[in-house]
Structures are given as C-alpha cells and as structure tokens.
Amino acid sequence: MIRIKAIHIEEFRGIRDLTLDLGGENFGICGPNGTGKSGVVDAIEFCLTGNVTRLSGQGQGELSVKGHAPHVDHRANPNKAKVTITATVPSLGKWVKITRSLKNPRAVAITPADAAVETIIKELQSHPEFALSRREIAKYIVTPPAQRSTDVQTLLRLDHIGDLRKALLNYANKYKREAEEAERARLLAEGELKVAFGIPALDWKKVLEKANAQRGVLGLPALEELTAQTSFKEGATEGGKKASIVKDVALADLSALSTGIQSGEPDDLKELRESALASLKKLKDDEKALSLARAHGFITTGLDLVTEDACPLCDKPWNAEELREHLKAKLLSAEATGTLLKELSNENDAIVRGVETRAAGIRKAAGYAAMLDPAVSSAELDTYANALDKAKAALEAFEDDPSQIEGAIAALVAEWWKVPKDAQSWLDETEKGIKALPDISAKDKAIDFLAICQDRYERLLATTKIAKGMAGRYATAQKVYDHYNTVSNKVLEDIYDAVAKEFTEFYKAINDDEGKFVGELKAAPAKLSFNVDFYGRGTFPPGAYHSEGHQDGMGLCLYLALMKHTLSDKFTYAVLDDVLMSVDTGHRREVCRLLKTNFPNTQFVLTTHDRVWLQYMKTEGLIQNGQFFGGWNIETGPRIWDDTDIWTEIQEALDKDDVPRGAALLRRYLEYISAVLADNLRAKVEYRGDDSYDVGDLLPPALTQWKDRLKKGIKSAEHWGHDDVIAALEAKLAEAETLIAKSKTEQWAINKSVHFNEWENFTKAEFSEVADAFKALLDHIRCQKEKCGGYPYLTPRKGPSEQLRCSCGAVNINLKTK
Amino acid sequence: MEENKTESISPTVTKVLDEYIAVLHADEEIDNEAVDRLDALLRKGKVPKFDDIDAALIPPPKGDKP
Questions:
Q1: For chain A, what is the largest distance between any 2 Cα atoms, rounded to a whole number of angstroms?
Q2: Rounded to a whole number, what is the distance in Å from the CA of A166 to chain B's nearest CA?
Q3: Which candidate, A530, A493, A468, places its Cα nearest to that of A182?
Q4: In A474-599, which ranges are E strands?
Q5: Which residues of A touch B50 (CB under 8 A)?
Q6: What is the layout of strands, in order, in the sheet containing A625-633?
Q7: Given CB atoms, is A499 within the 8 Å cutoff of chain B?
Q8: What is the pLDDT of residue B21?
Q9: What residues of chain A lie within 8 A of the CB of B45, using their CB?
Q10: Residue A485 sits at the chain B interface (C-beta within 8 Å)
Q11: A255 touching B, CB under 8 A?
Q12: Does residue A191 lie within any of the structural domains?
C-alpha cells in the first residue's frame, strides 16, 4: 500500500486549486462546516479508486461522479477536474504519482509506469473503505444484523468467499440431480431385468440358475459366474424364426405393470405428493413468496452476469458492486422461499421416479401391442405415456424455474398413477393377444429368453456404470463443497472472534471507565450480530443503551479492528472524515493515543470541524502537521489557514493598508486559538448553553489561567526546593504579565476603544502594534522547540492539575505540592 | 483472453483457500492433481463456472482402458 506525500486538487467538488503537503505523515484538516474538508477526502478517494462514495453510494440515485464531482463551474468541462497524489510505496521503496481526471474516471495515470506499483494501485482501488465518514460508521453499529453482515463481509472482502461457496454448492447440486437421474435409470433397468428373470430381488445366484436352466434346454454348458463380460446366450444359435415377442417375459412385464396399476398410488409417494401439492398451493397463494420464488433463478443468473463494469447486453456502464449488493439483498429476502423450494425439489424428485417407471412400463406394453399380429392399437398407451412424460417435464421445469408453478400443480393433481380407461382396455387387449400367441418350441423359447435377458443385463450394466460414475462425481463434488463450507466457516468464526477481541481491547483503551467491557460478534447464516456489554448488565446491540458518542467510538474501534484483519500490514493509510464528532472530550486524547500506539505504520488523514480536536491531535503527537480551512467561497474554494502563516498573512494585509482584513484575520485566528488555550488550560469560562463563545469570552480567562498555572508551578518548585525552576518560572511569569498587558486583553471589558471589535477602525500603526503583541504573547506560551510548537496543556483532564506540559515534553511544569 | 485475467484476492480469501486446499490434499479420496487444478482455478480471483470446476476436478479421460 502507499503513504501519501502530497495531494494536488484542481476544480474538484468545492476546490479550485489546492495543494496539501502531508509529508507521508498523519495529517489533520480542520475547518468549520462547508469549508471544503470533505472535498479533500473525496479527492483522495477519487484519485485512488475512480469513485466518490458520497456521490455514488446508496440513496444517491440522482448524483453521479462524472456529473457532480467537477467544480460546479466546470460541470461541462470534466477534463479540468483532476487530482494528483504523490506517494511512496513503502513495500517497494518507490515513489509514485497517481493522476486521475474526471474526463475519464476509470482511467488512472501512474508514473513512473511500473508493474509492481500498478498492482498496488489496483489493489487500492478494491479497498475504498480506507475512507470512513461519520455517516458510514453507523453501518457497522446501528444496522440490522443482515445488513451488517453484508457491510462487514464487503469490508473484509468476504463476499468472494460467499460467491465461491455458492459456485461449489451449485456444482454439487447439479451432480446431485444427475446422479439421481442416473440412479433412476439404473433402478428401471434393474426392475426390468428382475421381471425378465422372474425374481423378486436381484440375486445373482438365482440369475445364473435361471439362465443356466435355459442354456441346459439348448445343451449349452452352464455359466459358472456372472461378470460384466458374461453372455447368457453364448454358444446359442439364432432360431429359424425371428423372435418378436418373448411370451413369458412379455407377460411378466405386463403382470408387473398391472400389479403396479392395481395397487394405485404408492403410499410413500402419496405422502410426498400431498405435501408438495400443499407447498405449491401455498406458494401460489402468497404473491410475495411466489414472486421471490419466480425471481430466484433469474436473480441468481443476473448475479452471475454482473462481473464487469457494464451491462453485457447493451454495454451501458453500471456500478457492478452496487448492483451485486442490490441483487444479493433480493436473494437474501428470498432465503425462506429458497428453503421451501429445496423441500419441494426432494419431494418432486421421488414423484418423478414413480412417473418415469410407469411411463417405461406403458411404453414397453405399447411396444408389445405394436408387435402383435394383428397389431393392437397403441395410440392410447402412447398418449398416456406422453402425458406421464409431460407430468415429469412439468415437475422438472418447476425445479429449474419456479415461475412454472401452474404446470407443476397440474402434474400433481392429474393423478398420474391412474391409467385412462381406453388405455387400460388396450392394455388388456395386448395381454390377451400375448397370451394367445402360440407356444413355440422349448429351444426357441430358451433362445428368445436368453436374448432378452442379455439385452436387459447389458442395459443394467451400462446404467449401473453411469450411475456409479455420477454417484462418484456427486460424492466428490459434495465433499469439495463440504470441506469448503467447514473451512470457510471456521476461518470466518476465527476472524470474527479475533475482530471482536481486538474491538474490545480498542474500545476499552478509549473508555477506561468500562473495564469489564466486552464485545461479541456472532455469525449466523446471512446475519452478523454485534452485541456489547453495558456496565455488566448483559450484552445488547450498541444502539440499545449506549450514547451516540459511545456508539461513534464503537464504530471507529470496530472499523479499525476489521481493517487490521482485512489488510494486516497493508493498512498503511486511512482517511477518517469527521468520524469522531461526538466522542466526548474526556476520551479524545485516548483516541489519539489508540491511533498512534496501535497503528504506528498507518497514515491517518483526519478531518474535524472542531479546532480543539485538531489541537488534541497535535498535542498528543498523533499529527505533526495540519491544515486549517478558514473559510470557503465558490470563487476561490477553501481558504487555507496555517496557524504559523497567519502573521505573514496579516502583514500582507497591512502592507496593502487593508486594516479591516488584517483585523478580521487576527480576530478569527484568536477565536480558534483561544478555544484551544481555554481547553488546554482548563480556563474558568462563563458557561454558555448555546456554546457560542467569542474571543472576549475565552481569551481573558485563558490568559488568567496561564498566569495562575505559572504561579502554581513556582509554588510547587518552592515546595520541592528547585531554585533554578523557580527562577525560570518567575521570569516566564514576568514575561507573561508584560506581554498580556501589551495585548490589552485585560482592558477589553472596561475600555471599548481597545476592544477587538474596534480593531478594524485602528490606524495601520495601531493595529500593527496589536498584531505584534498577540504574536509575541502566543509565541511566549507555545513550546519553544521548533518541531513541537504546541500549546501546553494540563494533566490530568479532571481533578487537581498535576502537570503543565506540551506533547514533546520540553514544557513540563510540576504543579504538585504534595 | 479476458477469462484468463487474474484478479487480486484478499488476505481473508487467501487464508480460506490455503486451509481449504490443505484439507482437500489431506482427503485421500480426492485426487491430488485435481486439487492442484482447483487451487489454481480458485486463486484466479473470479467466481468459477460449472464447467471450470468440472474441468479441474474431472479431467477428460485419456482413452478407454481395455
């Protein structure tokens, strides 16, 4: 995977021209809502994947990447909109420049062209989940188990595991059907051989006895054993008269048929038929179930066709992933119907076997009828056999396509076992005709008998061979599927267990008040339940009792645990777009530490509209660099605001004699920094329910607190007898008092003429003095180390303050006196 | 040609396939060469069709034995 060094964005979303230097490190982007932060996230996603989830995800039907990702002024010129990312590929030790234009979102330019790098970029394209927005985080937490299963499986790339399972199951099922059909043919052949030999069961000893008896009539030696090469008629010469009907065998065939007819519908089949009929009628009455059943095969076929990014018929581009998800959801809701169809399939299969046997018996009788002289009409028998074929075809058609339900019902209602009257009379006629056939000589009889037995024996051998082959293939196919099912289930269970364990550790790390917390991921078919402990009172879905802030934290922890398992050491970067908005302030530092400690090799790009949050990221050392978006307008896009460059920007305004602009810049910057200072130093600020604090509300108490903490540090140093610290802090305090006085902050409340609201009316010299004073004051407070430059903060966050420190430790003032 | 393209497969799928193929190899009733062919097929990263699986598991007969 990659680490992003820089990103250059042109005419994309709300951005006109922007370059961000991430330096391959974690990076924070902060700015009020509507200043273009998410535009940067979208640009990263677009450059790496060619897609913008925000424009193409669920519920975004009217939006499109090509149509709405270019800046609004360049809707008609998508070629103007492009994003370039410069990155390193740590695993290859190479640099890469990735450029993608909205003119052709599917084409990416990679320089230098390198096969290994191209493979990595292609892999990135398949992992759009590196970008997580707050809106998406909910899908891991507050979502139905079936949808969570889909989302998590998509994230973990488990959908392919499911697809393979389905392919292997279809393979096994197809051989199951073929093996069953082959077995039916074998049973039919076996039945006919038994009838020919006149034995109730296939006893090879008896077969040999019967064959040898006839061979004895012909003076032929007895057969010693029965093998695949055995010929019952070996050595026999053909009789002078060509055998047409072997009277005894024909009568035995008709007798077997007649017995079957007289006993009516077999008991076992009756039960199955009634059950199948009831299921079919139920299915027919339930329109929704029927519609799902009808669509089942169609959707499955459709799913198989969605392999490319365009329709295979009309080449119209489609979002293959989205379409697949849509079709899968449909199949999921058809699951219950699928179970019903499976039961019906088993019942119908047994019925088909009965119908087939009957049809074969009737056809044989029709054959005899035609051979009689004079011939007995076989038309009615043929009609009945054809009707049986139709019934069989209708049942099989339903299995292939449940929309053929009417035909299946008709086949089951039609009472296939009942022979039509006309056909029965022709059967009787045929039997009569056969009985009336003159007896032939014992030798001819023996020859005919052996010939027909040979024919039926060879058929049994052939069908047995096919059935055995099919049974073998089915056994292999089933084994291949069963092994896959067992292995994949176990791997998934292990993954879910490991993810749940990791999630629990992460969540406990950011919520040290939940020591006994535990999270559980339980997989059931097509569902993934997620339950979390609630203060030892049991485990519940996250949305049941936990606050929104906790749910956000859970979403992040689950996401991180899933990504860790999905990408392992390839989890080298992630974009977290405002995902921690509602994490309470008490847990923010822990979140920073979690990301920093547990993912040292992952580059995080974090956006937030909360300035204090950005500062936390800096003070905790999660990010070294960040970008503040100070505003946005449609002409220029985001207004970049670097807190170290602000003084240059103010000076530039003053150079142009633009005091109002300089005043506005300073005021806005102080609004930002005073919130950071007030939070860091735990300033005593007058509380406002609407949270609308201005500079006047925050900065004076923050500066008072700064002096107070320095004094507290002096007291502590005195207590411990650290004279050098006392001297240094006294000098710092004196400097603070001088600089605060110069800023006139303490006079804002009593002297309107120096109030920040008046700055825009100052002369250039007057305002320049104010700006210099604040620059000196803020430089005085921040860490003097160039690499750190952070504003000190108090620890711990609650209770008596023990330490005033910066993230690098260069500022480290002990406040304890005990 | 398109059919022969190999898609990248995720680590999770790779893990499943590694363990799956090991289990198939350990099954004495399944031909090792067939398992190797199935392995190659599944690692292409595409969902195989019936005929693809069939060709992997059941190779065409080399000729009728006497």
A1: 140
A2: 9
A3: A468
A4: 519-524, 527-533, 539-540, 573-577
A5: 167, 170-171, 174
A6: A131-133, A573-577, A603-608, A27-30, A625-633, A637-641
A7: no
A8: 96
A9: 160
A10: no
A11: no
A12: yes
CB < 8 Å to B30, chain A: 476, 479-480
Whether the CB-CB separation of A622 and A594 falls below 8 Å is answered with: no
Q: Kindly state whether residues A72 and A206 are assigned to the same domain.
A: no
Q: Which one of A611, A642, A673 terminates a domain? A: A642
Q: What is the mean pLDDT of residues A226-253?
A: 79
Record: contact B42-A491, CB cut-off 8 A: no
CA distance to partner chain B, nearest, from residue A164 (Å): 6
pLDDT digits (tens, 9 = 90+) for A29-81: 988 788 888 899 899 989 988 888 777 655 555 677 877 889 888 888 888 99
A465 touches chain B (CB under 8 A): no
Return d(Cα A744, Cα A776) in angstroms, integer: 13
Q: How far is CA A425 from CA A182, A317, A815, in A?
A: 33, 65, 114
Cis peptide before A374, with omega less than 30 degrees from 0?
Answer: yes
CB pair distance less than 8 Å for A488 and B10: no
Q: Do B24 and A163 touch (CB under 8 A)?
A: no
Cross-chain Cβ contact B19/A491 below 8 Å: yes
A524: left (phi over 0), alpha (psi -120 to 50) or beta: beta
Q: Write out chain B residues lying below 8 Å of A484, CB-based.
A: 20
If you ran DSSP here, which 8-state letter would residue A796 be given? S
- Is there a single domain that holds both residue A632 and residue A723? no
User: Is the same domain home to A680 and A655?
Assistant: yes
Q: Find the distance separating the first CA and the last CA of chain A, reported in whole Å.
A: 51
- Looking at this predicted complex, what is its ipTM? 0.91
Binary contact (A495, B12; C-beta < 8 A): yes
CB contacts of A487 in chain B (<8 Å) are: 16, 19-20, 23
Q: Which of A579, A612, A642 is the last residue of a domain?
A: A642
A750-808 pLDDT per residue, tens: 777 888 888 999 999 999 999 999 999 999 999 888 767 778 989 887 789 999 998 77
- Is A617 within 8 Å of chain B by CB? no
- Residue pair A544/A534 in contact (Cβ under 8 Å)? The answer is yes
Inform me whether the C-beta atom of residue A298 falls under 8 Å from chain B C-beta atoms.
Answer: no
Same domain, A801 and A693: yes
Distance from C-alpha of A752 to C-alpha of A750, rounded to nearest angstrom: 6
Contacts of residue A167, defined as CB under 8 A and 6 or more positions apart, other chains included, come to B47, B48, B49, B50, B53
What span, in angstroms and rounded, lies between the C-alpha atoms of A519 and A502?
9
Interface check A464 vs B, CB under 8 A: no
Same domain, A793 and A680: yes
- Our count of domains for chain A comes to 3
Tell me, what DSSP letter sits at residue A538?
-
A674 to A171, A187, A301, A683, A767: CA distances (angstroms):
68, 90, 62, 10, 19
Amino acid at A516: K
Would A685 be classed as within a structural domain?
yes
CATH number for the domain that contains residue A604? 3.40.50.300
A123 in a domain, yes or no? Answer: yes
Contact present, A639 and A631 (Cβ < 8 Å): yes
Q: Residue A125: CB partners within 8 Å, gap ≥ 6?
A: A48, A49, A50, A108
- Could you tell me if A806 and A681 lie in one domain? yes
Residue indicated by tokens 């399939």: A345
User: Which residue has tokens 């595409």?
Assistant: B46
Q: Which residues of B touch A307 (CB under 8 A)?
A: 46-47
Q: Which domain holds residue A591?
A: 3-141+552-642
- Are residue A716 and residue A781 in the same domain, yes or no? yes
One domain for residues A790 and A671: yes
Residue B8 has its nearest CB partner, among A123, A484, A488, at: A123
* Residue A699 within any structural domain of the chain: yes
The pTM is what?
Answer: 0.60
Residue A283 contacts residue A340 (beta carbons within 8 Å):
yes
